[in-house]
Amino acid sequence: HTKAWEKYWKKGVQYYKEWQDKTGDDVVLPCDFEDNFSFRPPNLCLPHEDIRDILVKEGLSIEREYYAFSAQSPKEKSIADFTNTVSGTAGVFLATGNSRGKKSKEIQDQTYDAKFPEGRDPVPFQFSAVAWWMWKKSLLTVHPDWVQDEKKADYSGIKAFFRRDIDNYETLEILNEVLNDRDTGEVLEWTPNDPGEDDAFWPLLGSPNGNGVQHFATDYKVALKGKGISMIRATKIDIGFGNQYQMWMLFK
Prior knowledge:
about 250 residues; 7 helices; about 30% helix
């Protein structure tokens, strides 16, 4: 297997076990969480046309019930950018562009700082926390009465969490190992039923594009009513100027 596969399969097993063993309350976002971001108001939209065929095949909505979110941090001289399309009513999270602001050593500009392994200290907020904020916001936008009466709130409707436009080289290395020789549009799937290191479920779950989704499930296990990742699927799609990998996690 590739170096990325060897690096992340054990992490995938570890993160999944942490979800299985999780008890107690969910993670609580700090009171000043929103104060650390610049937000654009969520915009009602359709899912991007590149992903609609997959959504239809999964039995998921392609109607105008999605909200486009964009959040940058810090407010002054932002380095982190989280851009996603979310529908709490459809049960779908489409993660498109999410960067905590790490700076690659290959891109040494005025923000590069050699004392950090990635070249620059990222913002302290994990992707899973921002994703949860957006997930809740998509539902509270539709159900404003939940703000006043929390007993009415139900955030457990997650069905699928997509990682789109993947550009992390380690995740791509893993996906390339399993998809490189496959036809465009062919969908492969993996489940946690096989604990062996040859099952791509584990390195993909532990990868930079998978672990944030697993932490999302673990950190908010109570609100999600125990739902977790039951399957990972991936494919190559033709975006008009080449192929692009798409990966998504199904919740159950």
